[in-house]
Amino acid sequence: MSEAGPLPRPEPQYATTDQQAEAATFGMWVFLATEILFFGGLLLAYTWLRASHPAGVAEAGRHTKIVIGSVNTLVLLTSSLTMALAVHAAEQGRRKALTRLLAVTALLGLLFLGLKGYEYHGEWTEHLVPGLNFHEDGPHARTIELFYFLYFLLTGIHGIHVTIGIGLIVWLALRARRGSFSSGYYTPVEVTGLYWHFVDVVWIFLYPLIYLVGRSGP
Fold first, then answer.
1. Which 3 state secondary structure label does DSSP give 134?
2. How far is CA 189 from each of CA 91, 92, 152, rounded to the nearest angstrom?
3. Fewer CB within 10 Å, N side or C side of the chain?
4. Structure pTM?
5. Which residue, among 142, 154, 128, has the nearest Cα to 46 in the 3D structure?
6. How far is the C-alpha of 146 from the C-alpha of 196, rounded, in Å?
7. Could you tell me if 200 and 24 are in contact, meaning their C-beta atoms sit under 8 angstroms apart?
8. Residue 143 CB neighbours (<10 A)
9. Which domains, from first to last, does the chain contain?
10. pLDDT digit string (tens) for 52-102?
């Protein structure tokens, strides 16, 4: 059943709430465009490394924990679904469903971070952390170290984005529980949903580059 809820006044610089919502959505798209440029630079560095040292990158890729990476991919894809359902619930003014779906999305995000932390611990014990705890012999040792430098940089920055997203979603869930959103006003939910989907899309690109490289070769 739809719950009407409040319809707040727009900020002074906007004529209507629709105009304010359009500005917020456009602002998020601009922000995501800058993030794409940022991640694009790091992925370009990875592409250069892989093109220059394919054998070393393939060997490094075989060190990654493909089971954890695959489970985490499923976790994030599921969280993207629950976030999309949360936005749909907000559109329909279903406060309780919105609160529950946001809570599930946040829990899935925490599960992702927990699995990633466990994976990091395994890489520490295997001495695969460049600059702090790295020990690898063989002709491709330098390439493996560079691979893991980019690996920790990319996944670490992605993890920060996930953490920020979880904080935003928890904040939304608390507001939704208090009835701050309705079918007439749910812009924060929609904008946060765009951010969360971006985080998921970035991981979809990282997964094959990190976990599948070198798996099909001898």
1. strand
2. 9, 12, 30
3. C
4. 0.85
5. 154
6. 29
7. no
8. 22
9. 31-212 (1.20.120.80)
10. 888 888 888 888 899 999 999 999 999 999 999 999 998 888 889 999 999
